[in-house]
Amino acid sequence: MTEPKDLPKRKIIYDEDGKPCRSCNTLLDFQMATGKVSPVAAMSPMASAFNTAVTDFIPGSRTYRKVDPPDVTELGRSSWTFLHAMTAKYPEKPNLNQQGEMKDFLNIFSKVYPCHWCAMDFAKYIENHSPKVESRDELGQWMCEAHNHVNAKLGKPKFDCNFWKQRWKDGWE
Ligand code: FAD
């Protein structure tokens, strides 16, 4: 069976051990690279249902389903939620110790983030744009700009940083 010509070109990211990296690719790309789903099947309308289907509970449990490990999208969304929520709880006027801890945390985060090529870019961003940790407002703006840097890399529109507090701290009304 020949494959349709208009299948999207997929660029698969590999781990150091030469295997496809789950947390660096989308779930669909990862499944295509590991042969769990064919490119043709991936184009079908059932593909997204297939990929999000949770079929079973883990053995011995009626509570925990067999959920797959996170792909790059789920990992990213959860991580930004954590980073912005952490920023929203940062003190308005942090003492020097708290400022140092936040800098250390962001440096370490940029080294251990589980998508290694995302981590390398983020570490470079931190090197060139030192985290602004002297107040909550400054850190909020910095985090928003860091997120916008990734948005731009992925071809997404910028988020208006004037609204970071409504989005992550105060709500809209
Ligand atoms: P997300 O970008 O995850 O954003 C979640 C929500 O945050 C949005 O719905 C919006 O309400 C809000 N938001 C958006 N922008 C901002 C902002 N600037 N400030 C405040 N709030 C905002 N993915 C890759 O494919 N390649 C990468 O190199 C890569 N690098 C990453 C580096 C880091 C440090 C992190 C945490 C994630 C990275 N990701 C990367 C994942 C990527 O940024 C997204 O999380 C993922 O694509 C899912 O996007 P999303 O559209 O759900 O929204």
UniProtKB/TrEMBL annotation:
The keyword Glycoprotein does not apply. InterPro entries: ALR/ERV (IPR039799), ERV/ALR_sulphydryl_oxid_sf (IPR036774), ERV/ALR_sulphydryl_oxidase (IPR017905). Its cofactor is FAD. GO terms for molecular function: flavin adenine dinucleotide binding; flavin-dependent sulfhydryl oxidase activity. Residues 68-168 form the ERV/ALR sulfhydryl oxidase domain. Its EC number is 1.8.3.2. Keywords: Disulfide bond, FAD, Flavoprotein, Mitochondrion, Oxidoreductase. It comes from the Eukaryota. It holds the Pfam family Evr1_Alr. It is found in: Mitochondrion intermembrane space. GO terms for cellular component: mitochondrial intermembrane space. It catalyses: 2 R'C(R)SH + O2 = R'C(R)S-S(R)CR' + H2O2. PANTHER family: ALR/ERV, FAD-LINKED SULFHYDRYL OXIDASE ALR. This is Sulfhydryl oxidase. It comes from Naumovozyma castellii (Yeast). The gene is NCAS0J00810.
